[in-house]
Amino acid sequence: MEEHIIIQNCLKNDRKSQNRLYDLYHRVMMAVCLRYCKDEFMAEEALQNGFIKMFLSLNSYEPSRPFGPWFRRIIINSCLDQLAKNQINIRIEEEHMEDHANIEYPETDYSHRELMKIVQSMPAGYRTVFNMYVIDDMSHQEIADCLHISEATSRSQLFKARNYIKSTLNNLKKITL
Predict the structure, then answer these.
(1) In this structure, are residues 46 and 33 in contact, taking their beta carbons and an 8 Å threshold?
(2) pTM (global) more than 0.85
(3) Disulfide check for 50: which of 12, 78, 91, 121 has CB 3.0–4.6 Å away?
(4) Which residues contact 160 (CB under 8 A, 6 or more apart)?
(5) Total domains, the chain
(6) For residue 143, is it within any domain?
């Protein structure tokens, strides 16, 4: 309920409410940005641009729907814009491969932070599709529409991302033995 009041006050350009909304969402949206962007500077820029876009389009927000997912979509789009702006190649080669969702991953004792480093080390196309599909729960059709690629390409990039993670974890396991 408090969030709804804050949003209503933000629509009236109330600076305290805008600061409060920023405080409520800054950390969680920064985590989203860090998953998509290669470094912290780029993530901060995407976050700032996302907040600006959110405040500018707040009047199009439908109050009957949850605010968080609506805002998350703005942040993801801001990250994708930032990647394109910084000329990180998100072009994804067209391939037709099946989605192998049942890949078995090796057991791991790695922390979340260590696993996110592996995700960050992936090529931009793999990382972007992986984040959108696995973490942000988007369908291949939504990813394809957002990135202007085919569904088959989205599936292929997810397959490659999963293999990349599996291979990296296996290599790290061999190193520690």
Answers:
(1) yes
(2) no
(3) 78
(4) 126
(5) 2
(6) yes
pLDDT tens digit sequence for 78-136: 988 887 776 544 444 333 333 434 334 445 566 667 777 888 888 888 888 998 898 88
CATH code for position 52: 1.10.1740.10
The Cα 173–Cα 122 span in angstroms is 18
Please tell me the total number of residues recorded for the chain in this structure.
Answer: 177
Structural domain span for residue 143: 112-176
